[in-house]
Predict the structure.
Amino acid sequence: MIQGLSRKFSTMGCTALITGATAGLGSEFAKQLAPVAARLILVGRREERLGELSASLKKSFPSLRLDTLKADLSLSSERLNLSSRIIREQIPVNLLINNAGLGDLGTFDTAEWERIAPMLEVNVTALTHLTHLLLPMLRAQSPSGILNVSSVAGFYPLPEMAVYAATKAYVTSFSEALRMELAPEGINVTALCPGPVPTEFFDVAGRNGETIRAMERTHPSLASTPELVVRQALIGLERDKPGVIPNPLLALLVRGSRLLPFPVIREAIRLGVGPKRPQKV
Ligand SMILES: NC(=O)c1ccc[n+]([C@@H]2O[C@H](COP(=O)([O-])OP(=O)(O)OC[C@H]3O[C@@H](n4cnc5c(N)ncnc54)[C@H](OP(=O)(O)O)[C@@H]3O)[C@@H](O)[C@H]2O)c1
């Protein structure tokens, strides 16, 4: 039966595990949760950055408990190590923020498998695996929350971001179904679907070290700051919203476009009228 108990998940006093906490949206989640959370578990590959973020949060919020866990989420063994530690140490995680993710910009035929494979692993497999591994803990700590960082790219098939957009379509679809399954257990599930945000994302997504000037090519009214994206995401999760598009104009465009027949959208994308293609420097 898929009908709800009253769910009252709140970030107040939460224990949150944040993946991809070394940069961009992930470190912003840590900063915005720090004043209200009881404990944060910061996950990423760059240990030094995790240490720096943890030290600066500890300075501002001395009573906050902080753990840093170095993990390459593209590896199943490291995902298993991470969850074993949470369970062994009985860390009472009641908020899972599946934020780590990466893109690869360019045509599919010119893509290197060495870039596609980790993108699929991190964006899709790690998000699903960590949710599966930590669900017993989230259930035990209910009311709980799962915030999956998807993208507005997940609403459209995007040439030159074909695999990335498909991974985000997966994240949004998975999150919608999961929220229906978990609603009776007091576990909120929200998919965050931002448009362009100035983070390191476009540096990582550019091939051969090229910087992608996507932010410069994006109309300012469609972009959002990390601060706003994270604030809207946390509000949306607490209000048990299925999805959050943290920019009102983009939200309107996405909702409007979803009323159109798909062949119209396909043609618009084909003509380049859809989401702007990133330009190489
Ligand atoms: N920026 C945008 O325009 C935008 C728009 C829509 C959605 N998003 C989504 O937002 C999320 C956060 O991206 P961002 O914009 O903040 O990008 P970012 O600044 O590049 O941060 C990405 C984070 O993911 C982590 N990560 C990448 N590969 C990893 C791996 N193998 N193992 C562990 N962690 C890994 C990185 O940590 P380490 O490198 O230290 O491991 C980093 O902390 C992503 O899911 C992205 O798809 C971004």
Summary: The CA atoms of residues 190 and 237 lie 6 Å apart. The chain has one domain: 15-270.
